[in-house]
Amino acid sequence: MDILSENKKAGMEYEILEKFVAGIELKGFEVKSARKGSFAVSGASCVPEGAGLGQSEMFLINSDIHPYQNNNSPSDYNSKRARRLLLNKKEIDYLLGNFNKGMKIIPLKVFLKNNLVKIEIALVKNKKKGDKREYLKEKDMRREIKRVVG
C-alpha cells in the first residue's frame, strides 16, 4: 500500500470516530499526477449531494490535484473540482445520517491498492481546546520514550 497523500492535521484537530475506504473517480491524467505525488487532501472535506432525492452521492471537495503536465492538460481543467467518492448505498446512508447530526467527514489519506487510487475517509467531530493540549502532551511523551529507548 503506497501512501500518496496524508492529512497530518486530522489527528490533532478532530476526534476520529469511524473510518471508511472508498474509491475516487478521477480522470486519467489525474491518476498519473496522483501517482507522482501531486495530490493534496489537507483542508479537504466530504459532502453529500442529492440527499432528499434518494440518489445521494458523496463528493470530495477542496482537494487539489495539480496537472501531470501543464502543457498537455485541458485548458478548462480545475484542480480543485469536486470528485465523486465510490461508496456503497448503505455506507452513504450511514454517513449521511451522522453528517446531519453535526459531525464532519474528512479524508485521512490517499493510497494505491491493487493499482487503484483509494481514499480513507473518517467520520469525525471537533476536539475541544483541552483535548488538543492532551494530544500534544501524549505526542511529546511518545517522542521522549522513543528517544530514550531507541
Summarize the structure.
This protein has 150 residues and is of the alpha+beta class. It is 30% helix and 37% strand.
SSE blueprint and pairings:
Blueprint: E1 2-6, H1 10-13, E2 14-24, H2 28-36, E3 39-40, E4 45-49, E5 57-61, E6 64-65, E7 83-86, H3 89-99, E8 104-113, E9 116-126, H4 129-149
Antiparallel strand pairs: 1-8, 2-7, 2-9, 3-6, 4-5, 5-7, 8-9
Describe the structure.
There is one protein chain. This protein has helices spanning 10-13, 28-36, 89-99, 129-149; strands at 2-6, 14-24, 39-40, 45-49, 57-61, 64-65, 83-86, 104-113, 116-126. The longest helix is centred in the C-terminal third of the chain and has 21 residues, at 129-149. The strands form 2 sheets. The chain has a 7-stranded antiparallel sheet with strand order 1-8-9-2-7-5-4. Strands 3-6 form a two-stranded antiparallel ribbon. Helices cover 30% and strands 37% of the residues. Strand 4 (45-49) and strand 5 form a beta hairpin. By secondary structure, it is α+β, with helices and mostly antiparallel strands. The protein contains 4 helices and 9 strands. The two termini are 26 Å apart. The chain has one domain (2-149): Small protein B (Small Protein B, Chain: A, Beta Barrel). The chain is globular.
